[in-house]
């Protein structure tokens, strides 16, 4: 199992829309994530900075790496691009975070 964390940024006037889109996550998108080994995935918002903190646990890094190239994922990126900072291909601009501490019971 692999733990991953990264930051993204939503536009300040789009917090509500970002939340709503994730509450109505397409079933096909959820299936894609689970199919590619996602065990846990959470996204948190710092309302002051509009930064999003994402944490996920995946079964296998190589399976996770395949998600980005799928048609469904690229469709999701296109859907989300108007409300967040993105790269030219509409993928979210992300900053990977290094794990500094972890404890589990």
Oligomer: single chain
Strand % is: 25-35%
CATH architecture classification name: 2-Layer Sandwich
Query: How do the strands of the widest beta sheet line up side by side?
Result: 2-3-1-4
Query: Order of helices and strands, N to C?
Result: EHHEEHHE
Task: Please tell me about this protein's structure.
This protein has 105 residues and is an alpha+beta fold. The chain has one domain: Alpha-Beta Plaits (2-Layer Sandwich). It is 31% helix and 26% strand. The chain contains four helices and four strands, in the order E-H-H-E-E-H-H-E. The chain has helices spanning 15-23, 27-35, 61-65, 71-80, and strands at 2-9, 38-46, 51-58, 95-96. It has a four-stranded antiparallel sheet with strand order 2-3-1-4. A hairpin with a 4-residue loop joins strand 2 and strand 3 (51-58). The longest helix has 10 residues, at 71-80. The two termini are 16 Å apart. 7% of the residues are buried.
């Amino acid at each position: 199992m692999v733990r991953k964390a990264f930051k993204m940024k939503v536009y300040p006037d789009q917090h509500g829309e970002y939340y709503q889109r994730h509450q109505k996550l397409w079933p096909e998108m959820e299936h894609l994530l689970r199919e590619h080994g996602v065990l846990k995935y959470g996204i948190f918002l710092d309302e002051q900075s509009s930064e999003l903190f994402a944490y996920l646990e995946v079964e296998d890094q190589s399976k996770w790496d395949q998600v980005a190239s799928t048609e469904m994922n690229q469709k999701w990126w296109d859907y989300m691009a108007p409300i967040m900072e993105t790269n030219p291909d509409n993928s979210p601009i992300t900053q990977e975070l290094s794990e500094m501490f972890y404890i589990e019971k």
